[in-house]
């Protein structure tokens, strides 16, 4: 039983507590405050205010001391985070350095984190696709993981709800595999991308090349202007923070909206130690927090708790929330907490060249590119042909462009003329894979029995790896994309499998999965702990399976849906 400072209880009591301020935590804060609940938002990192705390967002390349490059000593001190494509001189301030929050790699895993108000919503890649019923019923079809307790119809209206507020650009493509949404105008194609789309449409009935759907405001609506956000300027330096609010982030959108209600209290520098469970009341009553600056422990209380610390940290918080009732972690009667973690397989890629359309080029920048939705094992598990060798499937990105080069062999006036008048090169094309991995009990996280982090909290031990299914999927992606590139007339095709560690995809999911049966899952269809009804988990840890879509839009929609239920259930005694 926790010791309570009676005098501190009233001033530290709220209607709701949200743990984490990233994409899902921001939505939880917006929805809870919008429904009139006094809400405390706990963030372990520092405060980052929209616009004013984006120190590099307006810098020109020559204004960086090292022209955007990382110092060698920074790379050497941070071998994990330095692998992330978005980590460079202009974004160092938004990423967790390797020594700041240590963890145990039982198997190699690159854990990419952003500890500040807004979390990784400041640096994410902003791709937003809905799931379909083909994705939700995948586990039921092939027997891996457990059946999702919801289907597309349950979440469809909530996709629409968050899309309208966040601002999602895209085209209505009419694909059953990738439902259409509430779209702003899509980004434009270039000539070779359109050529590829047409060639694939002419050859394959079941393969589609569409413009990617992204959280960028291409044409502001009144709801976006009310948020103080403006049209995307296509600067393509989004990971530095956007002063225009052109892409969706907690900092530009949901958190300021929640703050306007007068119902939100934001507390940065608050490292959550655990959730407090009261065995007499048979419910969670609050959260233990270590102040990151003073290292002092405090307790905050609420009748509703939303856990949105990001997938692996939410697992850590629940595993560390032990009591006589829950000796193995809060809500963990099933024993599955921390298990069945999955991720997206980004290992493979392909590049090529195209000799045609040399009279055309591109102009300007674009923060998005075309997308190839999943076409393998989609309607059912195939029983013959190459796709029968593996379970589930993969999606892919695609892009084309032309570079330029200058002849630097001359001197004086000739060299100056060459530098001022670069010559266009031919078209280059490329694709990357985003494959679904299968949730397995052998892919898990747990608390280390001896090692602690700087706050005295057990370090997270991560044991996650690829398997034979992933290898077969990589092989099929390379075979099929080679065939598709050949159909389009691309040449000098080169394949890539960089064997990157899991984690570098930054799409880790699971460990606190949803399900119909409390014996095999942690959460019910409302993202509510089966055995602790006033705790809700709506970040990536709730995912029962990963499918192939970028997951953040689903986190947003599920959070809004869950808050709606939680508030109603709390009033009726169901939470």
Give a structural overview.
The chain starts with 7 loop residues before the first helix and ends with a helix. Helix content is 23%, strand content 20%. The chain has helices at 8-11, 23-34, 72-77, 133-136, 138-142, 152-166, 191-203, 222-226, 250-260, 311-320, 412-420, 468-487, 552-572, and strands at 16-19, 39-42, 104-105, 168-169, 183-184, 210-211, 264-267, 270-278, 283-291, 297-301, 304-307, 339-342, 344-345, 348-354, 370-372, 394-405, 423-436, 444-452, 458-463, 491-497, 509-511, 535-537. Strands 6, 13, 14, 15, 16, 17 and 20 form a 7-stranded antiparallel sheet that branches. The chain has a 5-stranded parallel sheet with strand order 7-2-1-11-22. The model has no long low-confidence stretch (mean pLDDT 96). Helix 2 runs parallel beside helix 9 and helix 6 crosses helix 13. The chain has 13 helices and 22 strands. It is globular, with a radius of gyration of 24 Å. By secondary structure, it is α/β, with parallel strands linked by helices.
């Amino acid at each position: 039983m926790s010791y309570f400072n009676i005098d501190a209880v009233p001033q530290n009591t709220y209607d709701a507590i949200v743990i984490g301020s990233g994409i899902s935590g921001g939505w939880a804060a917006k929805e809870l405050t919008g429904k009139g609940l006094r809400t405390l938002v706990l963030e372990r990192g520092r405060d980052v205010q929209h616009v004013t705390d984006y120190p590099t967002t307006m810098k020109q390349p020559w204004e960086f001391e090292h022209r955007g490059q990382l110092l060698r000593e920074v790379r050497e001190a941070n071998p994990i985070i330095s692998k992330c494509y978005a980590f460079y001189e202009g974004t160092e301030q938004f990423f967790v350095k390797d020594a700041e929050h240590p963890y145990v790699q039982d198997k190699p895993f690159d854990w990419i984190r952003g500890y500040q108000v807004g979390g990784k919503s400041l640096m994410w890649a902003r791709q937003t696709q809905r799931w379909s019923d083909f994705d939700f019923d995948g586990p039921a079809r092939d027997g891996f993981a457990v059946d999702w307790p919801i289907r597309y119809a349950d979440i469809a209206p909530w996709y629409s709800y968050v899309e309208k507020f966040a601002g999602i650009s895209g085209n209505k493509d009419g694909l059953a595999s990738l439902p259409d949404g509430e779209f702003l105008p899509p980004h434009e194609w270039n000539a070779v991308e359109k050529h590829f789309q047409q060639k694939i449409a002419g050859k394959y009935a079941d393969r589609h090349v569409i413009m990617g759907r992204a959280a960028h405001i291409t044409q502001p609506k009144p709801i976006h202007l009310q948020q103080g956000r403006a049209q995307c300027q296509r600067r393509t330096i989004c990971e530095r923070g956007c002063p225009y609010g052109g892409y969706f982030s907690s900092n530009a959108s949901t958190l300021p909206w929640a703050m306007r209600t007068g119902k939100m209290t934001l507390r940065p520098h608050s490292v959550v130690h655990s959730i407090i469970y009261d065995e007499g009341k048979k419910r969670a009553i609050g959260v233990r927090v270590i102040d990151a600056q003073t290292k002092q422990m405090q307790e905050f209380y609420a009748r509703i708790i939303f856990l949105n610390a990001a997938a692996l940290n939410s697992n850590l918080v629940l595993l560390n929330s032990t009591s006589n009732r829950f000796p193995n972690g809060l809500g963990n009667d099933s024993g599955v907490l921390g298990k069945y973690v999955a991720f997206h397989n980004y290992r493979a890629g392909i590049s090529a060249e195209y000799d045609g359309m040399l009279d055309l080029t591109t102009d300007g920048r674009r923060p998005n590119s075309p997308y190839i939705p999943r076409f393998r094992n989609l309607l059912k598990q195939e029983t013959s042909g190459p796709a029968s060798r593996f379970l589930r499937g993969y999606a892919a990105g695609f892009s084309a462009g032309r570079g330029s080069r200058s002849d630097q062999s001359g001197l004086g006036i000739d060299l100056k003329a060459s530098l001022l008048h670069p010559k266009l090169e031919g078209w280059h094309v490329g694709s990357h894979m985003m494959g679904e991995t299968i949730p397995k009990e052998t892919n898990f996280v747990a608390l280390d029995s001896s090692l602690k982090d700087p706050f005295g909290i057990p370090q997270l031990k991560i044991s996650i790896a690829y398997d034979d299914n992933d290898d077969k999927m990589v092989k099929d992606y390379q075979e099929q994309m080679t065939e598709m590139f050949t159909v389009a007339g691309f040449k000098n095709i080169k394949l890539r499998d960089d064997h990157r560690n899991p984690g570098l995809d930054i799409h880790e999911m699971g460990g606190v999965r949803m399900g119909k049966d409390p014996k095999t899952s942690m959460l019910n269809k409302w993202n509510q702990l089966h055995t602790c009804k006033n705790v809700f988990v709506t970040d990536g840890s709730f995912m029962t399976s990963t499918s192939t879509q970028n997951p953040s839009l689903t986190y947003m929609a599920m959070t809004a849906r869950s808050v709606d239920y939680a508030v109603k259930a709390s009033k009726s005694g169901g939470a």
